[in-house]
Amino acid sequence: MLAPPCGGSLRRLICSLTGAFGMSFNTFGHMFRITTWGESHGAAIGVTIDGTPPGLIFDLERDVQSFLDQRRPGQSRHTTQRREPDKAKVLSGVVAGDGGTLVTTGTPIQLMIDNVDHRSKDYGALTETFRPGHADFTYWAKYGVRDHRGGGRSSARETACRVAAGGIARLIIQKFAPAAVLRGALVQVGARRIPAAQWGGAWSQAEVGNNDFFGPDAATAAAWASDLDAIRKAGSSVGAVVEVVAEGLPAGLGAPLYAKLDADIASAMMSINAVKAVEIGDGMGVAALTGVENADEIRIGNDGRPLFLSNHAGGILGGISTGQDIVCRFAVKPTSSILTPRRTIDQSGVETEIATKGRHDPCVGIRAVPVGEAMLAIVLADHLLRHRGQVG
């Protein structure tokens, strides 16, 4: 039997004292903070949202449920067939307003989503066996215990909580930056990337809602459908790249060094399950540019305001927003739960093979689009509140 690194009473005590054992950080943000809770196969999942200003009027269906419906599983053959209605319930932090609306009171908002279609029996063989590519081994190595049913807290099921919280975050953005618009799209599935002519950072949101992929180009979305049909039949999966953009934000959000806006955005995106890389602006591409090419030159526009001639920096310089579009991309790895047998070990150290059964996305990146939008909204809401607290 393999022993977890923090196994044994003495080591357990040491790990506890050093903060390495038994700790679970589930909170994100500063002035606007979210704490998610629940497991993939538990009775429910949910989020506690703290820092929402009082007096915000919102409609649960329009401002929260509509975004949850975008992320909801089982809506096409290209996503998991788990059937979850993902209906959000508000348990606290609001009072009834006029016309069926809700009004925030300034106290913590608690949202809950019932789990109604989990099949824990599909994971019976995983009680002591680690799935390659999953967090099974690392959770067990850290805590000495894990929830094998759908991955527990490491499941993408948790992201529904973030999407719900993102709806509340958008209300704050609307209040303090009414011109702001957030949008997201899938720009790559596997090796097939949307051509620059159809994308190039200036895509229309209209097409994004017309296909199963949140893709801004219809022809590429049709090709992705064929690609995924072949991948699924082969018992495998593919990764994806998501781009999220925020337009109409003021200059000045963020702070130098340890409160950089781009650092917080990167942290938010990396916290999403299965995300392995994040780019702001041109990202890794700037390494191939010269200083002449990369410099976002500035002139004065007809309105007397600064006019940037390019946006290689993705709308952020020195950790502070420039007033340009904030552009972020993140890469989602291929779904680790696949039918093709993979080599692994169990908790006793015995080598074995495993083929993951159950209902899984052949490309988990598809449903990551509304999640990325939500996390960007959460960061921006937090920074808008922090900005007001610092400079008024």
Give the helix/strand layout.
Blueprint: H1 9-17, E1 27-29, E2 33-38, E3 44-50, E4 57-58, H2 60-71, E5 88-92, E6 94-96, E7 102-104, E8 109-114, H3 136-143, H4 159-176, E9 181-189, E10 192-193, H5 205-208, H6 218-233, E11 240-247, H7 261-270, E12 275-280, H8 291-294, E13 298-300, E14 306-308, E15 316-317, E16 320-321, E17 326-332, E18 342-345, E19 351-354, H9 368-391
Antiparallel strand pairs: 1-2, 2-3, 3-8, 4-7, 5-8, 6-7, 9-10, 9-11, 11-17, 12-17, 13-14, 15-16, 18-19
Helix pairs in contact: 2-4, 2-9, 4-9, 7-9
Task: Please tag this protein with its features.
27% helix, 19 strands, 9 helices, 392 residues, globular, alpha+beta, 5-stranded antiparallel beta sheet
Q: What does this entry look like structurally?
A:
The N and C termini lie far apart (59 Å). This protein is globular. With 392 residues, it is of the alpha+beta class. The relative contact order is 0.16. α2 (60-71) packs across α4 (159-176), α2 packs across α9 and α4 (159-176) packs across α9 (368-391). Helices cover 27% and strands 22% of the residues.
